[in-house]
Amino acid sequence: MSLTEAQLPYPDYDFAPHWFEHGSVRQHYLDEGTGAPLLMLHGNPTWSYMWRNLVRDLRSDHRCIVPDHIGMGRSDRPDESAYSYTAPSRLADLERLVEHLVTERGLPDRGWTLIGHDWGGIIGMAWARRRPDWLARIVMLNSAAFPMPLGYRLPWYLRLIRSGGSTSARLVHRTNAFAVAASHLGVASALPRPVRRAYVGPYRGLHRRLAVLRFIQDIPLTAADPAWPLIDVGPAEAPQLTSLPMLVCWGGRDRVFDHRFLAEWLRRFPSAEAHLFPRAGHFVQEDAREEVVACVREFLGRHTEGTGASW
After folding, report:
1. Which residues contact 206 (CB under 8 A, 6 or more apart)?
2. Rounded to an integer, what is the distance from CA 182 to the centroid of its chain?
3. Any bridge partners for residue 38, and if so which?
4. Are 44 and 55 in contact, with CB atoms under 8 Å apart?
5. How many helices (H) and strands (E) does the chain have?
6. Rounded to whole angstroms, how far apart are CA atoms 182 and 149?
7. ω before 239 within 30° of 0 (cis)?
8. How far apart (Å, rounded) are the C-alpha atoms in residues 284 and 289?
9. Is the link from the previous residue into 155 a cis peptide, with omega within 30 of 0?
10. By three-state DSSP, how is residue 137 classified?
11. In 3D, which of 140, 144, 172, 175 has the Cα closest to residue 158?
12. DSSP secondary-structure letter at 308?
């Protein structure tokens, strides 16, 4: 049997696959290393591949849990009669997966570190606000988990796609244009071709990229949007979260999440440590790969309270 594009080997991604079943739908995730758990959540149109460098570096001291959202990466592609491609479904998926890992795979219900990027920040922080007692640390890369900052307007191409029924929306679904564009425009320095292929590979094929389109259409802008409850959290975060050690690694050349998003993270989390990488784009973990890995490792090494050294 020949391998599909999504099953092909990719650079530095030689991890053993794990699967969790949501009814008839299988979700793929990585479970690498031992130690206090790190939960790494990707956004759109990426997948667990984006965390490969952190996993390879941190798995010697931490247990790295890295899911692919359903419909993305190596997870199943159910049709919409079997799965609702909305942010509340993503949050429910995450809650079920973590509960499974705790009850069936021996992970603790304390001492977790949340690491999020793009939509992974929204989904992860929604989970964190429900389970603040499970968390020990938070790491955020270019992302959001709150309403759009004052004065911000979604880029025109995302507005067109989000509107639905437009030529742009059909283009995202019928071609791999959005993933291809992200692999070019999401970085300030060109990715090596094999790495770029790894980013876009899982979305080759019409049936493989419905989630990419639905994530764009699910961007929350008003209270009427299904994803709005995940970001409608008021002007201040709960003290249980703001008291946690937090690291923000930010690419200064992001075309979507600009400086206003970084400012809002720091307003909400005044004690957070921020590291700006002015020459990095949205995929800061690619443009500043070694620096981000070193920054996260150093942060984790300094903040061990509550992580349970015996795990």
Report:
1. 173, 174
2. 15
3. 64, 113
4. no
5. 13, 8
6. 23
7. no
8. 7
9. no
10. strand
11. 172
12. -
67 contacts 27 by C-beta, under 8 angstroms? yes
- The reported pTM is 0.95
- Cα(151)–Cα(124) distance, rounded to whole angstroms? 25
Is the backbone of residue 16 left (phi > 0), alpha (psi -120 to 50) or beta?
Answer: beta
pLDDT in tens, 73-105: 999 999 999 999 999 999 999 999 999 999 999
Domain-by-domain residue ranges, the chain? 15-153+225-302
Cα(125)–Cα(131) distance, rounded to whole angstroms? 9
Quick one: CATH architecture of 15-153+225-302?
Answer: 3-Layer(aba) Sandwich (3.40)
pLDDT for 3 beyond 70: no
Outline where DSSP puts E strands in the chain.
Answer: 18-22, 25-32, 36-41, 62-67, 112-118, 135-143, 246-251, 273-277
Cα 110 from Cα 116, distance rounded (Å): 18
Rg for the chain, CA atoms, rounded: 18
Confidence of residue 171 (pLDDT cuts 50, 70, 90): confident
Take residue 165 and report the two structure tokens written for it: 């029924």
The tokens of 196 are what?
A: 């770029």
